[in-house]
């Protein structure tokens, strides 16, 4: 089990390039940036984490601008969206952005996707929350067509386009790994339908108990689907449970803050990892 770092890249915290260099220098495998275009002031949708919504949700840089800064500042680090709200995005433009950053980074991009939770944010983008899972699937499928076909076309209920040309293609073949976020009752269906990995939150339900089902269903389909756990705690006992369950990567959150506070959080997590490894 290797490790990664999750970080909201806000304009008033350590910059995305600087944190990427820091995470790479400290030996982590990946860096994950979330996305929110904005947060409606109405705040009718409750924050899934409970309590007030942290300000970092509405102070983030644009996802792909921040990812580009992280990519050019590093040489080995995997960089990823966590998650990209593709239900709020044009799939043709998003496919271009994904292919571009994967190409420019030398094939280091991981595409975390999900349907989101803020219904007012979705509505501002013209997305009907009632059909967001169907939209998610079609937009991912349409992007796969753009990445893998010289003359790409897609005809669905929510996405429809005739043959097109779009280059560059991603550096990774057939495309960057698609990490399907979510902890809901039907998330494993989506992982198996169009994902390459499951990307759940550690603190929302007992994910470890669901991993045998995912493994069994993936094996029946002749596939291997890793689990990348988001929100891993600085707790060697819980990290041991995750490793024993077969989690491929444990991703810890660090605060949207200055470098010193980020380093202190990383110190705590890395200390737990060293204890786990008997170091």
From TrEMBL:
Where the record annotates domain Luciferase-like, the positions are: 18-228
GO MF terms on file?
alkanesulfonate monooxygenase activity
Entries under InterPro entries matching the protein: Lucif-like_OxRdtase_Rv2161c, Luciferase-like_dom, Luciferase-like_sf, SsuD_RutA_monooxygenase
* Keyword RNA-binding found: no
Q: Name one GO biological process term.
A: alkanesulfonate catabolic process
Question: Which keywords annotate this record?
Answer: Flavoprotein, FMN, Monooxygenase, Oxidoreductase
PANTHER family in alphabetical order = ALKANESULFONATE MONOOXYGENASE, ALKANESULFONATE MONOOXYGENASE-RELATED
Name it.
LLM class F420-dependent oxidoreductase
């Amino acid at each position: 089990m290797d490790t990664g770092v999750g970080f909201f890249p806000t304009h008033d915290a350590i910059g995305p390039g600087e944190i990427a260099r820091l995470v790479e220098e400290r030996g982590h495998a990946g860096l994950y940036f979330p996305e929110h275009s904005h947060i409606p002031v109405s705040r009718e949708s409750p924050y899934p984490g409970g309590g007030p919504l942290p300000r970092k949700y509405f102070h983030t840089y644009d996802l792909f601008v921040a990812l580009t800064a992280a990519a050019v500042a590093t040489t080995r680090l995997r960089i990823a969206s966590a998650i990209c709200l593709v239900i709020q995005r044009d799939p043709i433009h998003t496919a271009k952005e994904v292919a571009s950053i994967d190409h420019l980074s030398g094939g280091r991009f991981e595409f975390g996707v999900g349907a989101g939770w803020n219904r007012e944010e979705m509505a501002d983008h013209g997305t009907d929350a009632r059909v967001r899972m169907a939209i998610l699937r079609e937009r991912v499928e349409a992007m796969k067509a753009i990445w893998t076909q010289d003359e790409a076309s897609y005809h669905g209920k929510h996405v429809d386009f005739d043959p097109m040309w779009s280059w560059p293609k991603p550096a990774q073949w057939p495309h960057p790994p698609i990490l399907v976020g979510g902890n809901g009752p039907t998330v494993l269906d989506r992982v198996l339908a169009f994902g390459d990995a499951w990307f759940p939150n550690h603190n929302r339900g007992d994910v470890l108990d669901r991993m045998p089902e995912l493994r069994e269903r993936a094996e029946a389909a002749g596939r291997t689907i890793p689990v990348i756990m988001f929100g891993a705690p600085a707790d060697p006992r819980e990290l041991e449970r995750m490793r024993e369950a077969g989690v491929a990567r444990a991703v810890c959150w660090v605060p949207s803050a200055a470098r010193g506070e980020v380093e202190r959080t990383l110190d705590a997590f890395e200390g737990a990892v060293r204890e786990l490894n008997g170091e």
